[in-house]
Amino acid sequence: MVSPFSMTNNSPENLIRSILSHIGEDPDREGLKGTPERVIKAYEKLFSGYRKRPKDILTVFDGEHYDEMIVARDIEFYSMCEHHILPFFGKAHIGYIPNGKIIGLSKIPRLVEIFARRLQNQERLTSQIAESLHELLNPKGVGVVLEAKHFCMMCRGVEKQNSTILTSSLLGLFKNTMNTRSEFLKLIGK
C-alpha cells in the first residue's frame, strides 16, 4: 500500500515547507531540516483515529448479571480542534449500566482514543463516544462527560489560560432518571 504521505510536488512535506515560508521562516535553515517529515509523522499519530472503527476494538463479554453502574474516570485524551487545527486536551469520564453485556475495561479508553484522534470539536467528540458505546453495547444507559482546555482559547483569540470546557452526553437511564444522573456525577466528582 502506498502511503498517502509519499513525496510528490504537492506532497505534505512540500506543503509544510510552504507554510514555513509563508510565516517568514527559512525551511532550509539547520533547525528546520527534517521538520516537514517530523510533522507528517506527528500528524499520522494525531489523526490515527480515522483508520480505526470502534466495533473492531470493543470486546463484549457476558455481564454475569452485573447491573450496577460501571465508571471509568480521568481518562486523558488529546485531540485537535477542527476550526484552527490546534490541540485541545483533558479528561473523559464515562459510565454505563450493563444490559446483560459488559466490555473489557481497557476498551473504554481505546474508544475515547479512536474519536479523539481526529479533527474534532468537543461537543461532537462527547456525543460520538456516548453514541458508539450505546450502539455497540446496548446498555440501560450511558453517561459521558469531557472536560478540556483548548489552545485556540489559550494562545489566540480570548487568551484565557485557565478556562475549562465541560460537555456531556447522557443516554437512557442517565438522561431520564435523576437518581442515576446524580450517582454518575457524584462518582466522577462533578
Describe the SSE topology.
Blueprint: H1 12-22, H2 35-46, H3 54-57, E1 60-62, E2 70-81, E3 87-97, E4 101-103, H4 107-116, E5 119-120, H5 122-137, E6 141-150, H6 151-154, E7 165-172, H7 173-176, H8 178-187
Parallel strand pairs: 2-5
Antiparallel strand pairs: 1-4, 2-3, 3-6, 6-7
Helix pairs in contact: 1-2, 4-5
Distance between the termini: 47 Å
- Give the topology string: H per helix, E per strand: HHHEEEEHEHEHEHH
Quick one: biggest sheet?
A: 5 strands, mixed
Shape: elongated
Number of helices: 8
Percent range of helical residues: 25-40%
CATH class of the largest domain: Alpha Beta
In oligomeric terms, what are we looking at? single chain
Number of domains: 2
Poorly predicted residue ranges: 1-7
